[in-house]
Amino acid sequence: MAGNPERRAVLVDAGIAVLAREGARGLTFRAVDGEAGVPTGTASNYFTGRDDLLRQIDARLHVRLAPDPKVLEALLSERRDRALVTAFMRDLMDRAVRDRTGYLALFEMRLEATRRPELRASFTASVRGDLEQGMEFHRAAGLPGGDETVAVLYLAMLGLLLEHLTLPGVLDGALEGVTVPEGLVDRIVRTVVPEA
Amino acid sequence: MAGNPERRAVLVDAGIAVLAREGARGLTFRAVDGEAGVPTGTASNYFTGRDDLLRQIDARLHVRLAPDPKVLEALLSERRDRALVTAFMRDLMDRAVRDRTGYLALFEMRLEATRRPELRASFTASVRGDLEQGMEFHRAAGLPGGDETVAVLYLAMLGLLLEHLTLPGVLDGALEGVTVPEGLVDRIVRTVVPEA
After folding, report:
1. How distant is the Cα of A67 from the closest Cα of chain B, in angstroms?
2. Does B132 contact A24 at a Cβ distance shorter than 8 Å?
3. What is the SS3 assignment for A1?
4. ipTM of this complex
5. Number of structural domains, chain A?
6. Closest chain B residue by Cα to residue A119
7. Which of A131, A145, A147, B72 has the lowest CB atom count within 10 Å?
8. Which of B21, B110, B191 is closest, CB to CB, to A167?
9. B2: pLDDT confidence band, cut at 50, 70 and 90?
10. What residues make up the domain containing A77?
11. Omega before A117 cis (within 30°)?
12. What residues of A are in contact with residue B154 (Cβ under 8 Å)?
């Protein structure tokens, strides 16, 4: 395996772009080489196969889509109430809109996981880890609501992310006076999270 | 265009199976012919192109995934309370689990819609129609909560459908004593829908 970490990162990001644009079936080493602008055959020196590439895409998306530590720190200086949960969810939505390609790649990975048991196992572990981390964060921060609140909030946000990033027109104007996605994030939190 | 409606239905259902199994990029007329077990070239006599096939798949999924009128009628003889909303959502989830292929095809259609403006327009109109119909149904039936309740419930169920049908292990055991998906459907309704 070739070891240039910068080139590896460029190839993985190229894989994310190909996955979002072409779908899982379009994700070939040749397409990744083309997207990265490197000679054909390069990707095969960096990944043992397609499963390895998909695993590295998953790991990279965790970094790309993670909250900015400075934003987190600033938010954690605020009162631990429902308004703070809204601010966290708005930050999540902002990140998804800014890196729509990364999120669409995650959705493609889910569908590809239905076809590839090895990917399903590793991706399940990583998404489950995120959910448990979210519950642990909520608890440790003393935010209102328990694990059940976090689980329902997680599912509603997952639904909103899918809807807004794939068919944004569905929700636009569906609730009078509610902007999409910001206003809808507020309504989700208000419905799901107890006041204190 | 060839006009045999039974053969057309077989081809559209074959398209749904291909879409779910191979992803949108695998959806070719040749693959549909192969899946349906008809001579190569048949699908091209029934659809003007890929967009036409995708539109007919969308229309067919509306029929395949619709509630059973007898189940609806029986449920509508019950008291119009939160427990009835739970029963409707459980029926939705049952249908999705029974026709997982149909639901996975819908998720593939969403991702394909990000690449094809014509599909995006028609699919947006059809999903928006479903959401508005859901709000109208909820109102007419006198179920607890308003349009906002229905919108948040819709998003949480969309998230649960996506999670459970693609990565079922993520939610399994995440909340102690809560079965997946049934128990989680109950918790979503309890969290989102007011008691009366």
Report:
1. 21
2. no
3. coil
4. 0.97
5. 2
6. B167
7. B72
8. B110
9. confident
10. 67-192
11. no
12. 159
